[in-house]
Amino acid sequence: MKKNEKSYKGEIFVIISSVLFGLMPLLVKVIATHGGNACMTALGRFFIGSLILFTAISTRRNISLQITLRQFREIALLSVFYALTPVLLFSSYTYMDSGLATTLHFTFPVLVIVFSVLLFRVCPDCRQIFCTLLCTVGISQLSGGEAAGVTGVLLAIASGVTYALYIVFLGKSSLQSVSALATVFWLTLLSSMEIALFAAATGNLIFPSDTTAWGVTALLALLSTALALVLFQMGLFRCGPIRASLLSTFEPLTSVVVGSLVFYETLTVQNLIGIFCVLGSGALLVLPASLFSSVKQFLFAAHGR
User: Cα separation of 202 and 220, whole Å?
Assistant: First the structure.
């Protein structure tokens, strides 16, 4: 069956969203150099993002912030998973190399498939399984890959688990009938409140006096939070949780390319292999099923020779 226009649009939305998320390491690094810590960055990102979305919704008469009690409960559950993700991931950086932490976090496409099968009996097709393997190889090549302690590994994997649960439950929620702007507004607002409580309880609620940190945090909230989250949700409801999670691997690819262009970080052969694998996986996902079958038949025929 040919892929419809809705699915194609969804894939494009997710890819653009992943590119915007991929700008996050650059912006977070700038914030850190100007006095911001992980909790402040996550809190500012979500709270300012909710203000941006509220402003956008206020200018449009056809969008309402009203949601049902069931939808509020669904968003509240999603906000817990989404708020925990950056806290766990940023915390893992204390115990291990950020490249390896990112690799472990990006096990979430595999976890999305596992949770989809276990919780909702949704089975992936052969193409999605192959692309998952290709993505896993690609992400492993994009990381620095230094040794890590057990604590760091568990925190990084836990961040992948919470993000996978966010994707799976979002895909099965009733929020498709709600405007993406309204859903993400409630999501970011609740996430900011949860992170504020966590930061206050752990003594990590530190606000920098540097205006540059706040300016870049606002940019992070606009590009890598409000806009990226809205596009991701719109894309997920069009192409499905498994496909959306796999296309999300464009995020670390973007981070590597931006790091090379902005910070003049060296692109190794290993990085290039990773980029090729991630791009190849994305290309295979968006190709029509008939073309993918032709490629598979060609590969099997070549192997037979």
Answer: 24
